[in-house]
Amino acid sequence: MCGMTLTFSTFSNRMREMRYVATIRQTDLHPSTRHAIGLPIELANGIAEPTPMPWPFVVLIHHNQSGIFLDRYTRDGQPAGDTWHKSVAEAKEQAAEEYDGMLGQWIEVPDDVQEDRLIAFASENSR
Questions:
Q1: Rounded Cα gap, residues 42 and 82, in angstroms
Q2: 116 secondary structure, DSSP code
Q3: pTM
Q4: Which of 9-13, 44-48, 104-108, 115-119 shows the lowest per-residue confidence on average (mean pLDDT)?
């Protein structure tokens, strides 16, 4: 993980009031909820099928001027989906529903943990 550069497109250094991370237990059994790029099959009109996003290793809750986001990232920092929420509690409920039995405990991320260290921080502090 040394030298890895992550790009969290919705994260901003000036908005560090709260961030929470949790790891997701890696398994071959994936729940029915999966994130994808593109329109759902029902709306695509045969143009293209959605491309499944990779299975996440960590989920991050953070906020910006548009609201609260639950972002998912792979072990190497690649995006694996995101959702918008009205509250931190709602984002946590969404994660618990999606990753039933696989979600680690939420950990508040200290302000001094930089964006490129979030996944390492989650790995080192997961319970």
A1: 20
A2: G
A3: 0.75
A4: 9-13
* Unique residue bearing structure tokens 């972002």: 71
Alpha-carbon span 27 to 31, nearest angstrom = 10
Look at residue 113 and tell me whether its pLDDT is greater than 70.
yes
Amino acid at 67: G
Q: Six-digit token pair at 120?
A: 């390492």
* Beta carbons of 57 and 81 less than 8 angstroms apart: no
> Can you give the pLDDT at residue 116?
80
Gap between the Cα atoms of 127 and 59, Å rounded: 14
- Rg of the chain over Cα atoms, rounded to whole angstroms, equals 15
Cβ pair 5, 76 in contact under 8 A: no
**Sole residue written with tokens 């001094």:** 112
Amino acid type, 118: L
Taking the CB of residue 31, how many other CB atoms lie within 10 A of it?
12
By C-alpha distance, which of 118, 109, 117, 121 is closest to 2? 117
How far CA 122 is from CA of 7, 14, 22, 23, 115, in Å, comes to 16, 21, 6, 6, 12
